[in-house]
Amino acid sequence: MPLAAMKKITKRTAQELVAEYGTPIDLVRLLKDEEITLKREDMEDSISGMIVIKPADTTIVVNSSHHHSRQRFTIAHECGHYFLHADSASAFIDQSEKIFLRDAVSACGTQRQEVQANWFAAELLMPKDYLLKKFDTKKIDLYDDYPLRLLASELKVSVQALVVRLTALGLIPNDCYEPHV
Description:
- By secondary structure, the protein is an alpha+beta fold.
- It folds into 2 domains: 123 residues, Arc Repressor Mutant, subunit A (Orthogonal Bundle); 55 residues, no CATH class.
- The chain has 8 helices and 5 strands, in the order ααβββαββααααα.
- A 5-stranded mixed β-sheet has the order 1-3-2-5-4.
- Helix 1 packs parallel to helix 5, helix 3 crosses helix 5 and helix 7 packs across helix 8.
- The longest helix has 19 residues.
- It is globular.
- The N and C termini lie far apart (42 Å).
């Protein structure tokens, strides 16, 4: 499938969920409605989470040692696999179980399904239309990161994830943001 078509499907699916569950998205309600079990477990630091998709039982496992905002992104990423890739997992435990693992490879975004799951998570947690409305009448002041921290808190994401999203949307020039230390 061409990249543009993948993006369109990903965006439409995420936007449908945002319309139903609001912004910031209520991931707990979404998981409950989809009958997805969420587990938090201590894992290697390089593993953020995974999803196990079985015919009658789907479980998302996130790394309990990671920050809450990172866990939210991982949950949203794994939901991307659930909604977009349930029929085409890249790894199998046996004939009836499918697994997607969120690790350093998926974070780099080199595999198509991982790239698509990252796009899905970004749109689900930080919807494009919502962000465009937020910055419709005002510019992002790169010398004052307080508004970014405030918006990241409102959306329950990290400032880093928000900056990546705003950059991808062209709201922040590619090489301009440097957070205050």
